[in-house]
Amino acid sequence: MTTTEDQSVSDAVTAGSHATDIARSGAATFRTGGGQADPARVSAVVGAALEGIRAAIREQKVTYEEFDAFKRWLISVSDTGEWPLFLDVYLEFEVEKVAAETQDGSVGTILGPFWLDGQAQLDSPATLPMRDDEPGTPMILAGQVTSTDGTPLAGAKVDIWHTDEEGWYSGFASKPPAGNLRGVVTADDQGRYEIHTRKPAPYTIPLDGPTGQMTLAAGWSPWRPAHIHLLVTAPGHRTLTTQLFFTGDPYLGNDVASADKPELTLDPQPTGNGDEIRSDRDFVLAPE
Ligand SMILES: [Fe+2]
């Protein structure tokens, strides 16, 4: 997210605290599991994670000064509520790869920290909530939701959220109003959906918080290519968590969150209606 420094300070803290509240409350109930304290599993996973860090200390000959800086950084991640941001940017893509090993259907990718519950419920064809003068290229995203055997999934739900043309998420940045460019669209009796929105923009993770500061300190790009987030659900089927990107985006292949995949790139075409563009994308859900 880019803006003036003063605004980005407040936005990073706001975004961090909101994302932390959501993670703490377990609001993302579409993704259950975890929390089982099997000692063998805890020992295996936590042990491997700690050993990875110990190996880094040995191999890089980490100094006490660096160790103390690491402690301060970890504390600041907590203080700013950036644990969801840090974890979703730098680790979630590996968890998603593991999950994808056992999931058929359309290609997925990470959820990220900016999903919100309780958004507008809309029937297809739907226009997402937006300001009267919402900037950006008008865009239609449409397609069909089916099961892996081709059966249309009537009433499938397409939960969609993305930034505005300036790279801001409603509910996390102060500028867009609540609910802007977010909604849950119910597909028709053939599983078809059509969503009218605006093309989103690339954005940086917040640069004033510890995640962004670490990213810049390492000389890494803080940018995410423009993308649309989607959660596609239907009864009896595993939820598809995915994102859609745009051909020609300068940040494709260099996504700070490592979430972009070639299969997820859209190539919208003009509809002939002003500067409106359209992409068609079907989603295939795996039965549970
Ligand atoms: Fe995003």
Please give the alpha-carbon distance between the first and last residues.
37 Å
Radius of gyration: 20 Å
What is the topology, as strand order, of the major beta sheet? 1-5-4-9-10-11
Q: What's the name of the CATH homologous superfamily? A: Aromatic compound dioxygenase
**What count of domains describes the coordinates?**
1
CATH level 3 topology: Protocatechuate 3,4-Dioxygenase, subunit A
Structural class: alpha/beta
Total of helices:
6
Ligand catalogue: fe (ii) ion
Protein name: Catechol 1,2-dioxygenase
GO biological process, one term: catechol-containing compound metabolic process
EC number: 1.13.11.1
Cofactor: Fe(3+)
Summarize the structure.
By secondary structure, the chain is α/β, with parallel strands linked by helices. The chain contains six helices and 14 strands.
Features:
288 residues, alpha/beta, Protocatechuate 3,4-Dioxygenase, subunit A, six-stranded mixed β-sheet, 14 strands, 21% strand, globular, binds fe (ii) ion, Intradiol_dOase_C, Intradiol_RC_Dioxygenase
Description:
- The chain has one domain (5-27, 82-285): Sandwich (Protocatechuate 3,4-Dioxygenase, subunit A).
- The protein is built from 6 helices and 14 strands.
- It has helices at 5-25, 39-60, 64-79, 83-90, 92-100, 210-217, and strands at residues 121-123, 126-127, 138-147, 157-162, 182-186, 192-198, 203-204, 223-224, 228-233, 240-246, 265-266, 269-270, 277-280, 283-285.
- It has a 6-stranded mixed β-sheet, with no helix packed on it. Strands 2, 3, 6, 12, 13 and 14 form a 6-stranded mixed β-sheet that branches.
- The chain is globular.
- The structure holds fe (ii) ion (FE2).
- Residues 112, 114, 227, 229 line the site of fe (ii) ion (FE2).
- One of its GO terms (molecular function) is ferric iron binding.
- It is an enzyme of class 1 (oxidoreductase).
- Keywords: Dioxygenase, Iron, Metal-binding, Oxidoreductase.
